[in-house]
Amino acid sequence: MSDTRRRVKVYTLNEDRQWDDRGTGHVSSTFVERLRGISLLVRAESDGSLLLESKISPNTAYQKQQDTLIVWSEADNYDLALSFQEKAGCDEIWERICQVQGKDPALDITQDPIDESEEDHFEEIPETSHLVELPPCELGRLEEIADLVTSVLSSPIRREKLALALMSEGYIKKLLGLFRVCEDLDNREGLHHLYEVVRGVLFLNKAALFEVMFSDDCIMDVVGCLEYDPALVQPKRHREFLTKTAKFKEVIPITDSELRQKIHQTYRVQYIQDIILPTPSVFEENFLSTLTSFIFFNKVEIVSMLQEDEKFLTEVFAQLTDEATDDSKRRELVNFVKEFCAFSQTLQPQNRDAFFKTLANLGILPALEIVMGMNDLQVRAAATDIFSYLVEFSPSMVREFVMQEPQQTDDDVLLINVVIKQMICDSDPELGGAVQLMGLLRTLIDPENMLASTNKTEKTEFLSFFYKYCMHVLTAPLLANTAHDKTTKDQQDGSTKINPVCPDNFQTAQLLALILELLTFCVEHHTYHIKTYIMNKDLLRRVLVLMNSKHTFLALCALRFMRRIIGLKDEYYNRYIIKGNLFEPVINALLDNGTRYNLLNSAIIELFEFIKVEDIKSLIAHIVDNFYKALEPIEYVQTFKGLKGRYEQEKDRQSQRLNRYRRDARSLDEDEEMWFNDDEDDEDGESTEKRMEDDFSDSYGKFMETKKGKLHWQKYPEEPFLFFVDCNFISIFISAGAANGANGANNGKAAAIPPASPVVTPNSSPSSSVKTVALPPTCVVKVILLKMSSRSHCYLLLKGFLFLSILPLSPVLS
Fold it and tell me: Which Pfam family, an example, fits this chain (predicted)?
């Protein structure tokens, strides 16, 4: 549908009393069989999907506001609104609604919802009293008018009738005329009554009345009436502030008079709502909902009008980046962009997307790169706020811009490095700006919001960029404040002496704590990149210098960094910690803390408790071997005794494992001798062995034939593995050729297979019958003796070796 008259946006009111944009489409009013009545249908202009299907109910109160809005409620706490692009379209649909309900299209509301208490007394209201009868607008009747206005606020029907009466007789402008008379006469009583009247009219919550009251010729008189609160001894001077103190600055001249008028109106109405009117009570919460909607739609209109004026925004960014622009002008431009972005937060997601894409196309990020590096604190603060809006909207857009920079500029002026330097150089003693910037950096380096496409991965590319170009800037203050030196004696011992001088300045300590918080985040989420950086820079050692700080919060940050590393249970990290003896500063801090029961004490003990519970064996062995004597006196927790117990258990297991596989022929006990000499007389066992021998011989013969048919034996000059089977033992002889096969391969000659005739060694005994072969005298031989549970198992093992090995094997059977 191309008719722009019926082009609308659909809004719903959320729980926070803010309007949510449900989409843009075209509205029509047709009969819907399923709903059995005339209904409002809105179909999306993008894909034709149904955005709204609402039956025009005879009992629903529809309200027309600002000539282009239709608002109604379909259920409790479910308000809907249609915002038309053109007034003609709004009038057309409004007439259709009034036709279905049998109402006069000249009215701005079809009917008012009636609660139960109103229904009970509805019949008591005379039918002839269509409108509330207003007293004449005279000075002497102001008290009567004030009583009438305040009395109707509790009744929805009477509020509606009073609003119609005020509109039909042009009563508002007459009241404001009386205000000027009372002020000239200094009639305080009349001014107090006018305050009550104007406040009550605002609480009628009618858009049609707001259009009159907030027009250019009336709004300052409305503000004037609200200055004379009877509860105040002296009236407020709101008009003086709005006309003299508050100055409207046009950083770039606005040629559109309608836009300028809308900006003035919105600012003044916002001032009335936020400053002049008292905070509504629980019973008055909904009295000003229409005023909130009035401001909201005004802001949407302002942003849309500015966004559509390409010349205006282009000029703003051109002057913002122009070196010839003076500082005061640049300050005004940055503040304008900041306010512009703040206004955009009232937009719904679709409109906000278009808004920020427009700013990106106009060069907002290069402009920020310039202004964030300026010395003006106000400019930098405003630029930080703008940057935060952009990061919150689309971190990927900022990352994409940043990764293109190294091709065009030096590392020192990269946008992220500018942000990091601003964080480091924050002059605020509480580091408020640094905290804000640290949060933005964490958002940018968070892998959770990085997109992955088919051809490339944003996470890999950006993190590689960040660690290459930016990480050294982030860690520079940390490395500078944890410098270490080596003394001659320390160098002889091979140890590093840590300089115990730590930053005592509170602001510096806070900054280092922020940096450590960001690094801890990296350890949790970046794995490979941060691991490489920590290893290359010996970063953990430098961080643990801060365990000596007099600021406990900084020592805890350093400990938290180490705790996150150990929590990964990564053996690369564990070996790095062991090699560097990095538990020493932690244990020294625990011992120096003494018997004080504080957060540092608990955090250190939790670290060791984690190691014990998770049974990280390498760290447990290192701690017990090197520090147990110092930790043994600590008995108020069982952590360190538990570590010692884990350590002893592991030693016992290792000892048992070694004893299980270690066999010494000279120290065999009687049981082993009996087992060794067992003839295995079981007939079934002998038949099984015979079948195994036959299978083995056949398999080996086929294997060797296949091997000879497919391989050239001259490539293997010597066969490095020789096997001998006797009883339940396998003897494996490994010659030097196994280690030096390459040398043998180079001679290009085929090696002769050693003779298979067995020669009994001098140390052999008739009972053992362990056989070997004669090998060349230059050959170095290693012997492995395997004892199997039966002879059949020996053949199975040999068969596996033959078919799985990639080298030629020669078994020699006894």
Answer: PP4R3
Q: Residue 389: which pLDDT band, with cuts at 50, 70 and 90?
A: very high
Give, for 484, the enclosing helix (H) or strand (E): strand 484-485
Mean pLDDT within 109-134: 51
Contact 276, 223 (CB under 8 A): yes
Contact (CB, 8 A) for 291 and 205: yes
pLDDT tens digits for 408-417?
556 667 889 9
- pLDDT tens column, 477-500: 999 988 754 333 344 444 444 444
- Residue 378 in contact with residue 338, Cβ under 8 Å? no
Contact 785/716 with Cβ under 8 angstroms? no
Which amino acid type is present at position 234?
Q
Interatomic CA distance for residues 68 and 81, integer angstroms = 10
pLDDT tens digits for 596-630? 899 999 999 999 999 999 999 999 999 999 999 99
In this structure, are residues 282 and 333 in contact, taking their beta carbons and an 8 Å threshold? no
Q: What is the pLDDT of residues 231-262, one digit of tens each?
A: 888 999 999 999 988 888 888 888 888 889 99
Nearest to 93 by CA among 12, 32, 39, 37: 39
Instruction: Give 255-275 as a DSSP string.
Output: --HHHHHHHHHHHHHHHIIII
Model confidence band, residue 533 (pLDDT cutoffs 50, 70, 90): very high
Residue 83 tokens read as 């915002």
Q: How far is CA 649 from the centre of its chain?
A: 43
432 closest CA partner among 384, 504, 376, 379: 384
Q: Are 198 and 175 in contact (CB under 8 A)?
A: yes
Determine the angle formed by the axes of helices 395-404 and 458-469, rounding to 10 degrees: 50
Integer Cα distance of 674 and 744 in angstroms: 44
Distance CA 773, CA 704 (A): 20
Mean pLDDT of 753-777: 38
Any idea which residue has 């202004």 for tokens? 371
**Crossing angle of the two packed helices 142-151 and 188-203, in degrees rounded to 10:** 30
Q: What DSSP state is assigned to residue 495?
A: -
Whether pLDDT at 772 is above 50: no
- Classified as helix, coil or strand, 174 is helix
Token pair for 527: 């794995």
Alpha helices (runs of H) in 662-784, residue ranges in sequence order: 670-676, 683-710, 741-746
Residue reference for tokens 């006309």: 243
Encoding tokens for residue 245?
């103190």
| Whether the predicted model's global pTM rises above the 0.90 cut | no
**CA-based Rg of the chain, rounded to a whole angstrom?**
44
Tokens of 337: 């962009």
Determine the residue type at 233.
Answer: V
Burial class (CB in 10 A: 0-12, 13-18, 19+), 784: exposed
Separation in Å, CA 463 to CA 54, 101, 375, 448, 529: 50, 63, 30, 13, 7
The label of the residue with tokens 């929590």 reads 567
Q: Which of 87, 75, 15, 27 is nearest to 51 (CA)?
A: 27
- The DSSP letter of residue 245 is I
Cα separation, 16 vs 43, in Å, equals 27
Is 566 in contact with 616 (CB distance < 8 Å)?
yes
Question: In which residue are the tokens 């689309």 written?
Answer: 394
Q: What are phi and psi of 7, to 5 degrees?
A: -80, 125
Domains and CATH numbers, the chain: 4-101 (2.30.29.30), 132-302 (no CATH), 569-659 (no CATH)
- Site of tokens 């009386």: 178
Q: Which two tokens stand for residue 589?
A: 């801090």
Check pLDDT > 50 for residue 265. Answer: yes
Q: How far apart, in whole angstroms, are the C-alpha atoms of residue 430 and residue 809?
A: 76
Specify the pairing of strand 62-65 against strand 50-55.
unpaired
* C-beta separation of 165 from 215 below 8 A: no
* Separation of first and last alpha carbons in the chain: 97
Residue among 696, 693, 724 nearest 786 (CA)? 724
